[in-house]
Write the structure tokens for this entry.
Amino acid sequence: MHQNYPHPKILMEISAAIAFERKLRSVLAPDPHRDPVAWLEHHVKSIPYSPQSGPFRIKNSPWLAEPLRALVDPEVQEIAVLGSVQMGKSWVTEAASCLIPLLAPGPTLMLQDIDRNADDWLNTRLRVLWESIPAVKNLIGPEGIPKKGAINFKTNSAWVLGANNERNLQRRSIRYILGDEVWQWGNGSIKEALARTTAFKWQSKTVFVSQGGTEGHDWAEFWKTTDQRVWTFACPDCGHRQEYKWTSLKFPETALTTTGWDLNQVRAGVIYICEKCSSELKDTNAVRTRLNSTGAYVATNPRAPKERRGYNFNALCSQWGLSWGDLAVECIEASRAYDERGDTVARQEFKTKRLAQHWQEEADEIKIEETVGEYKLGDPWPDEAKFINGKPVTGIALPPDPLNQKELVRCRFLSVDVQKRGFYYTIRSWDAQGKSRLVACGYVFAWSELADVQKKHDVHPFNVFVDCGDQKDEVLAACGARGWNATRGDQRNEFAWKIRLPSGMTKTEYRPYSPAIIETSGQKRVKVFYYSNLRFKDTLSTLIRRGRHTRAQDVPQEYLAQMQSERRTITSGGKPIWEQIGDRPNHFFDTECIGLLPAMAYKLTGRVDQDSSEDGQDENKTATP
């Protein structure tokens, strides 16, 4: 029997229609993983570099849910996340880098502060993350992920660069900007980054994440333009919604003793007080998790444009990291460092890193009259420390104890400010607890006279520090001939040190003075140390105010005048600087700052880093004076 079959052309049209319908249905069908949070929970089986093993679960960091969902909200173009360190804020940008190639491809620019850190971000975090997620790994182009340059996914191109390199923020039309640790960017970089999205005016998305910065910096100013949403919880007893406030922590009364806080009692006994009903919330993982189960963001700046969101959370809402007691101890230690050693950095870091707030710099002016000691120049001081094997110890008498094989050296430093026709100097003595006395000060005309001053007051040659900002060659020659050190003030606030750990690995620490830079003068080698003008002057001011950096009763009037020759001011951009008051000479002020360098290096004052004997060793062993 003859059968009628459709014409082949008709069969092709039917097949194409079926394929089109299938494709259309797949596009229009509800996607259970279209929500960014659901997508990440489904696809991210582990975050390779996370200290917590296992798949991504939003319940572990619920404060990230709303910022993640804002990534695909068409009404939101600019997102700012101001969060505490070690609480997942960088995950917002890293998660976005996974979502973009799959959900809404477009040219993407990912930014750290400098190119070196951007390269590290790409190779130690982003690369391993993309390769750990099959859905993302399948979109990586055949050439793979280069160590530098454009990254070509099958659906879009991406770059990982430094924001402080002006060339990186030019010539590219970008749909997505993902910026990390924006507090470290230079002023102007945020504006330049936003300008890259002009070609994608209605489709662009910008995400900036960071800890707190400094008031007046671009990051602080940008945050103010957002709706400034804060992470809140509802009290389990009264239901009152409130943000996590540091002032709501209550320390146990018995923890404050006549000698200060008992840190063990503080850590074990801190509680949180509801601001409405005064309920006492215990410091446990279960309580913090319960509070976060009621968590929600509340906008505090309703006048902000609706397309610009801001999300703020601090370390008090941490569920599994630091407890409230841990944070309380950290805060007490930061305050103690400020009171006892003039360490302003610890307080600033606690506010910006833990409380996720911007630091407000303050003006200052030294009041020398607050620091008069009950002694005269040259008076003996029983509490003066002596160096034994490089460590300052109080209570050892001179001459050297015969039981010690090494010479005992007085813990006193001669610091010198070089002028065209002579030298201003101060000699300061220290005890092992960070208190100091002025031993001598004055002015001499020749290097030989300065050497006589050193010998007269029994200052070890290695404890002499001479400014080389002017007449550098002459200073290096004199230091090389006598075994002295050279110094120079710098506008940088911190310097990188490589620290070797007991495991053999190295880590980077930052200090307000540099490792020694070896320079030569003839056949002699001289150590040159750079130091932060701002940090040292801040520390000096604090030590004087706290009565730990004293002067003798009979100092010359010129010393008093020069010690009140500078004041701390804040520039229009929010940057703190110390500036000279009129034309007042400030040479003794400079010598006192120079004298803090060895005091900090020997951990007598200022910012105290971890003891190398316990945590690691300086990789450059010539660095510490």
Remarks:
- The longest helix spans residues 8-28.
